[in-house]
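Dear Dr. V.,

Thank you for agreeing to look over these. As mentioned in my earlier message, I'm a first-year student in the group and I'm still getting used to reading structure tokens, so any feedback on how I've presented them would be very welcome. I ran two proteins. I've put each sequence directly above its structure. The first is here:
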Amino acid sequence: MCFSFGIADAAIFTVINGENSGAGSLRQAIEDANALQGDDVIVFNIPENLCDAAGVCQITNLSPNSITEGLLIDGTSQPRWGTAPDNVCATDSSPSFMRIEISARGRNHSIFKTYTTVTTPVTIKGLSVGGYSSEADDNLIGIEFDGRAVNNRIYCNHIGLNAQGNERRLLRVGICLGCTFNPQHTIIGTDSDGINDVAERNLISGTYNGININTGGPFTIAGNYFSLTAEGLVLTGIRTLQCLYMRQDLENILVGSNSDGQNDDLERNLFGYCFTGIEMAPTLDPFNMIVAGNWFGLQA
């Protein structure tokens, strides 16, 4: 099986167990991809006997998964076992369901973290990423992007929620862009191309921030559910302090609809159980910032 990133065929690494490290683990797959120059793909083929009756396969995480090369991590590749639904990401008629649930233990780290060495795109999709339980240490970050790559993607994930999207898995921050260094163009949620835009939605929660942006873009944040369950009708059990928090030099950031008249309703973000939906604290006057078409305090 080959994937092309437009430069060369990518190497494929397969995760076959839920261990924190060692052969067949997600961590080993990432380390192997880091060691191989070029853009690579991680897929999942965890056997049925290692997953639960609902078809959810648990992966234990004890320390950061550090990404230093361009990479696609594709949780939607995991086979369907047990009572798991056909769909993995959302559809027009079904809420999203993740077959891979990554449960972190520990403090003060990011479950996934890209570094400044990354110069080609990183995409993370089809994963449930969160703390070990609803009482996990809350100093965790789900996904932190700090690389210099352009066209990064985070879509079709449950960040701070379980695989079914109906229970919190505590994270202090769901997604952080530029927590340490300044990343480049990143799309969180739908890319607004009219193709599978519903299925590109993320569910995002965090005890402190759903998304934390510490630098200028270009960034697009569209079509996501913040502190709502997978069907978009129920508030999650713990309120997020700031569902979207943006600070420092804010420029070239789109939050919600691009207002081009094409699928604008699918580009809106829904800010559910948030103490503050969006908070901006720029150090300079914002430039080319658009916040449009979003719903606050409402269900789908």
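The second protein is here, in the same arrangement:
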Amino acid sequence: ILMEPNTGKILYEKNANELRPCASITKVMTLLLVMEAIDSGKISLDDQVTASAHAASMGGSDIWLKEGETMSVNNLIKATVIMSANDAAVVLAEHVYGTEDEFVKQMNIRAKQLGMNDTTFKNCNGLDEDGHLTTAHDVALMSAELIKHEKIFDYTLTWMDYVRDGETQLVNTNKLIRSYKGITGLKTGTTSQAGSCISATAKRDNLSLVAVVLGCSTTDERFTSASTLL
């Protein structure tokens, strides 16, 4: 799907309402709730948060948080956005709502508020799980909402950064930030069930666009498809 985020006008779509897993693009909703919690004063970027055993147990893409390890909200967002760290996303979720389960409940409530009527979240990071499904259309809706929080671009446009005083390097999974003029973000995702996915946001002159591609067979295909749509 290709959408103009300010009006919600759909410029192009193909099977945009087909139910699909979306892998780490799930984190768009996670980051939206985190940004809203920061804006409301519930949490702050400087908060130091301790990783639980549950968060430390995540597989897939992560920054290898150990149970009891402490990291700032700012660095956890960096890890979640830039490197798509599953463990960092869970630590943020637990910090905002106490448990991942409660956070996921709030993700689903927020999805309904945004008109994401075909989406069901089962976790906060997008690891494959039965029933964890969305559509390209719904991903575009939550992406449009997230980019209202312009602070997110500080993270989505960072190609490389570090946490743990330089010990852990983060390299952005979104190669478009080095190749596509006007790109502003936003999130990639890859799992065996979801394939290669991307929600790509860009702005040239006064035109903003959100392009969502789900289920590509390769990472190159998702970047090429998103660039073509934009």
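From my reading of the second output: The first strand starts at residue 2 and ends at 4. The chain has a mean pLDDT of 97. Does that match how you would interpret it?

Kind regards,
E.
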